[in-house]
Each structure stands twice: as C-alpha cells, then as structure tokens.
Amino acid sequence: MEIKSRIKDERGSISILVLAFFLITILLLIIITDVAEVAIAKRSLTQATESAAQRGVRNLNKEAYYQGEFDATTMAANLFGVGPDDPGVPIDCNAARSDVEQGLEDWVSGDRSLTRVELSDLKIDELYCDGFSIQVRVSARVTLPLAVPLLGAQSMEIHSTVGTVNTRDQGFYLFGIRIL
After folding, report:
1. So what's the pLDDT on residue 68?
2. Cα R_g (the chain), whole angstroms
3. Cα(83)–Cα(77) distance, rounded to whole angstroms?
4. How far is the C-alpha of 141 from the C-alpha of 157, rounded, in Å?
5. How far apart are CA 45 and CA 115, in angstroms?
6. pLDDT tens for each residue of 112-152
7. Alpha carbon separation from 50 to 45, 58, 80 (Å, rounded)
8. CA distance readout (Å), 158 to 131, 140, 155
9. Neighbours of 101 (CB within 10 A)
10. What is residue 25's predicted lDDT score, i.e. its pLDDT?
11. Distance between CA 165 and CA 143 in Å, rounded?
12. pLDDT of residue 63
C-alpha cells in the first residue's frame, strides 16, 4: 500500500515538468545558434564566391571581341533593329580560371576580420567557363559553435554556386558617348 500511495502523491511533479521544459529550451537554443552560424557562414561563402566570379569574368578575350567588330552597315542595321544579336562580352577562360582561384585564395589568406573564422577547407568543386559566362561551385567546412556530443555533429559541409556573365549596355554609342 505504501508504494501505491507514493505513486499517487503529486507533490514535486511540477519540478519534473519545469526541468523537462528547461532542458528542451536549452537544446532548442543550441540548435538555433548552430543553424544561425551555418546560415551566416553560407552567406559569407556565397559573397566570397561572387567576388571571385566577378574577378574572373572581367578578363576580356580581345581576339574574340574584335573579331566581329561592327562596321558602318552593321551599325545602320542595328539602328533599325534588324542587326545581329549581341552574343555578349567574350571571356578569356584561362585567365578567368586563374583569377577565380587567386580571388578565393586571397580571401582565405587575407585578414581574418574579413573572413569567417569557423570556415575551413575551402575548395573549388567546379569552375565552368563557356566563353561568355562563368559558373563557380565552392565548398567549405563550418565548425559549429555549440556542438552537442549526443548529436555527433561537430562540423558540417556547405556549398555555394554562383554564375556571372558580362553584358554590354544597350543603346547607341558614338565614339564612347551614349546617344540613345
């Protein structure tokens, strides 16, 4: 009878409930902190990848650019809207690859105040250049600030993919001055 009376005794049951809610709250705070850290690191990695891609796309392939140079008849046809379509600004892919790699290397080895200290093992997974656009896929490892040993995740891998293309301003230019 003593066991049944102790089971039915409700004294102290609220403390178990409060302790359970406290532990759930702490676990949720840890998870939210880790998710926020990954999101910030992902944004930082994307910005660095965008910067490197912009650095690569600036390399003009002069031979291809001046190969289809406009003459007076092409300019007149473009004025009336019947000229050839502009394929875009051609990129020197070899120089672009080198600039993208150098841009990311500069970001990694640069001032620590500009990078995320929790990012490591940055590598270029894919660098695609078709002569008019560049696509870069980069991965890195993020160290979680509040790693829970029970969950087994001390770090995770993130990826960022960025594409960019050079375009000309639309309009009619005469000796470098925009008329239309």
Report:
1. 61
2. 29
3. 5
4. 4
5. 9
6. 777 777 888 889 999 999 888 899 999 999 988 887 666 67
7. 9, 13, 37
8. 28, 6, 10
9. 16
10. 94
11. 33
12. 82
Provide the token pair at 125.
Answer: 């997974």
Judged by phi (left if over 0) then psi (alpha if -120 to 50, else beta), residue 62 lies in alpha
Q: Which domain holds residue 21?
A: 2-178
Residues 6+ apart with CB under 8 A from 143: 118, 120, 154, 155
Residue environment code for 128-141, b if the CB has 16+ CB neighbours within 10 A, otherwise e: ebeebbbebbbbbb
What letter represents residue 11's amino acid? R
| Domain count along the chain | 1
Please state, in angstroms and as integers, the Cα–Cα distance from residue 49 to each residue in 20, 69, 134, following that order. Answer: 43, 33, 11
Q: How far apart are CA 180 and CA 178, in angstroms?
A: 6
Average of per-residue pLDDT across 79-90? 70
Locate the DSSP E strands across the chain.
119-129, 133-143, 155-165, 173-174, 177-178
Q: Cα(92)–Cα(98) distance, rounded to whole angstroms?
A: 10
Residue 134 confidence (pLDDT) = 93
Residue 170, both tokens:
């639309």
Place of tokens 């051609």: 90
Q: What phi and psi values does residue 118 have, to the nearest 5 degrees?
A: -85, -5
